[in-house]
Each structure stands twice: as structure tokens, then as C-alpha cells.
Amino acid sequence: MRLPENLLQKAKIALHGVQGFVIFLAWAITIAIFTKPGSTDGRTKFFFALCWFCIPLLIYQAGIPQFNRTKRFSNAYAHAAIDVLLAIFWFAAFISVATWTTEGIKHGVGRPGVKGCDAFKWGGGGSKCHLSQATIGMGVIIFLLFLATSYISIKNLLYYRRNGSLPGATPAHEAHPLPNTDDDDQAKYAFSSNPHDQRDPLRRPRRNRHELPRHNRHLGPPATVTPA
Q1: Which residues, 6+ apart, have CB-to-CB distance to 54 below 8 Å?
Q2: What stretches of the chain adopt beta strand conformation (E)?
Q3: Phi/psi at 202 (nearest 5 deg)?
Q4: Residue 75: its pLDDT value, please?
Q5: Against a cut of 0.90, is the pTM above it?
């Protein structure tokens, strides 16, 4: 069963959807870079690996908190940590690709009449350089999206620390309230049709004659006092 969501949670899930779409585009463009002639290094491979790494984490971030059966695996600390770490990783990823692209352009600028991506040293003509620049733009967008989800996750974490539950979830003391037997008993006596039930709850109950204490047979029956 899908759980109710507030506006902030809906916005976070929508942002994760946009993240997944942009990451897919970045993944496809990076594959196109690998197919171009020339060389690549670990910076582009790190960007490509990060696209794969985000798939299970986005499923956890967007899917786990939505359903009743998976809600127990949702943790405010985990959501905040994942969003913050992915924001850091994507910042490092687009910076790495940007430095690789800039180095390729700078190393080829010395040739006469060639400038910009046409002077890209790592091969592939200008197309490989343009594709790499496209992945840099994608990385910046993904980084900004994870900054937004990090803000929401940290806000949810602060809510959890104050209330003991995530937004939209039922607090534990409300989900399993302690029974109030005194109130239940008084209400039962007040609305009972049996006149014998109209009794003071503070009054000690009468004992049955079978529950009266018996004398100790070793000490004999209780002493009786005869009048003089």
C-alpha cells in the first residue's frame, strides 16, 4: 500500500525522477565518447561508473519511503547521507571531466589555424570534445539536483530528531497506544444495564464468603467472649 506524502516528499521524489533521467542522458553520451576514436582516461571512466552507481541508490531514495511494506527500511540518516555523498561525487565527476577536456584543448592549441574543440588532442576530431562538454553540463545539473535533495533530506532528518518519525509516518506512540483500563472500566460500569455494576471504582470489592479467611485448625476455632 502506498503511503500518503506531503508536498516536500512529493517534490523530493520528483527531483529524484529528474536526476534519473539526466543521469541516463549522461550515461548515453559517455558511451558515445567511448565509441569515438582516440583515448580516454580514468576521469571519464569515473563519470561513467558513477552513473551505474546511482541506480540502486536512487531506487532506495525514491521508492523505499513510498510503500508500507518497504517503509521500515527507510532511515532518515541514510537518506541524508546518500544525498550529500552523491552531491560530492557528482561535483568531483564533472570537475574531473572538465579538467580532462580542458587539457585536451590546451595541448592541441599550438597547431596553426586550429582552436577550440577542433584542437582536441585526445582524438575524435571536434565531436568527442563537444560530447565531453555536454557531459560536463549534465554533471553540473545533476550536482545541483542532489544539492536540492540533500537540503530536503537534512530537513527531514531534523524533523525525525524532533518527532521520532519521518514526515507522513505515524509516530510510534500513536500507532500503538497503551490501553487505559481505568477509563474503559469506568465507561463500562457507567453504561451497564446491570445495577450491580454501578459501583465506585475506588471501593474495595466485596469478598465472597468462600474467600473469607478460615481459622487455623492447629490453633483451634477463634475464641468467643461470654458475657459475665
Answers
A1: 19, 20, 23, 86
A2: none
A3: -90, -10
A4: 85
A5: no
